[in-house]
Amino acid sequence: MKAKSIIALLVAAVMAVTLAGCGGAQKTDAPKFPTKQIEIIVPYAAGGGTDQVARALANSAKDIPGQPVVVVNKVGGGGAVGMSEGEKAKPDGYTVTMITVELVTLPHLGLAPINYQNFEPILRVNMDPAAVTVRADAPWKTLKEFLDYAKANPGKVRVGNSGPGAIWHLAAASLEQKTGVQFTHVPFNGAAPAVTALLGGNVEAVTVSPAEVSAQVAAGQVRVLGVMSDKRAKAVPDVPTLKEQGIDLVIGTWRGLAVPKGTPAPVVKTLHDAFKKAMDSKAFTDYMDKAGLGIGYLSSEDYKASLKVENDNFKALIEKLGLNKKQ
């Protein structure tokens, strides 16, 4: 019996060592991420706001994941080409897309078949609200005065935007819906020409981002009456939000990172943690402040919920305005 007991103990010990070895091998052989370069698709041209945000973030994140982070511009279709390529990429975490608000506007405008549900959000990086801006010599010192005038004079106030269906057009249209005023919308080929038209007296107002009028504010050429955000914009800290002025309206442009749907959750978390650390770095925050761009962090889950809300809101607004090209 004693000999059998000794043999049984030896067998048990050998099995334990073998199982431990197997367990260790499984742990060692578990897939690691990342093991190669991470690519960020930017769906707009180099040098633009989206490209600037992506490159500043990539520069701050390049050493955090342990692998290079590079930016690749895929231009066309108002952002649709790059985002379409991003949503069809292999869901392994190595192709990340900088998605923008156009992800939830272009489909409802009938301009692109992209779908926010085909992405797994990583985090939102930036949010720049629309800012109701008039010339410094305009008769309206407050948003209330401006809206009271617009209400009393339907269609007389011309509001410049960056093109039909673009976010700054939708911002002005949303303000109309919320307040019952009626503007005359004047489209331009981008925000900069709209601001130039404002300075020249060709329109009475613009609804572009604070960053896009910050130089004119500093020069005393324009006055911002309100920003369409939850909190005040750093670029114009003394200007109250519309919410502070009794109008519950938050709308603007935003940029964030996402991977194709089906990307493993641990990979999404690794990417989130790496890019959040990059967002919190002094180099990134200093760059954003200098550029007048707002930092607007949302976690993966909060960003996913926000995308659904914005998608539904823009769908309803675009249908109401009759802007869907398929109609």
Account of the protein in words:
Belongs to the UPF0065 (bug) family. Pfam families: TctC. Residues 1-20 form the signal peptide. Keywords: Signal. The chain is of the alpha/beta class and 327 residues long. It has two domains: 38-127 and 253-321, 3-Layer(aba) Sandwich (D-Maltodextrin-Binding Protein, domain 2); 131-245, D-Maltodextrin-Binding Protein, domain 2 (3-Layer(aba) Sandwich), CATH 3.40.190.10. The protein has helices at residues 2-29, 49-61, 80-87, 143-152, 167-179, 191-199, 214-218, 265-279, 282-291, 300-321; strands at residues 38-42, 69-73, 95-100, 119-129, 131-135, 158-161, 184-187, 205-208, 222-227, 252-260, 295-298. The chain is 41% helix and 19% strand. Helix 2 packs across helix 8.
Which helices and strands occur, and which strands form pairs?
Blueprint: H1 2-29, E1 38-42, H2 49-61, E2 69-73, H3 80-87, E3 95-100, E4 119-129, E5 131-135, H4 143-152, E6 158-161, H5 167-179, E7 184-187, H6 191-199, E8 205-208, H7 214-218, E9 222-227, E10 252-260, H8 265-279, H9 282-291, E11 295-298, H10 300-321
Parallel strand pairs: 1-2, 1-3, 6-7, 6-8
Antiparallel strand pairs: 3-10, 4-10, 4-11, 5-8, 5-9
Helix pairs in contact: 2-8, 2-9
Q: How many angstroms separate the termini? A: 89 Å
Mind summarizing the main beta sheet? 6 strands, mixed
Percentage of β-strand residues: 15-25%
CATH fold descriptor of the largest domain: D-Maltodextrin-Binding Protein, domain 2
CATH class of the largest domain: Alpha Beta
How do the helices and strands follow one another from N- to C-terminus? Answer: HEHEHEEEHEHEHEHEEHHEH
| Secondary structure tally, helices | 10
* CATH architecture name of the largest domain: 3-Layer(aba) Sandwich
Q: Identify the CATH homologous superfamily of the largest domain.
A: Bordetella uptake gene, domain 1
Task: State the strand order across the main sheet.
Answer: 2-1-3-10-4-11
- Mean pLDDT over all positions: 90
Rg over CA atoms, rounded to whole Å, is 25 Å
Number of strands: 11
Residue ranges: pLDDT <50 for 5 or more in a row? Answer: 16-28
SS class:
alpha/beta
Principal-axis shape: globular
- Helix coverage percent of residues? 40-55%
Overall tally of domains: 2
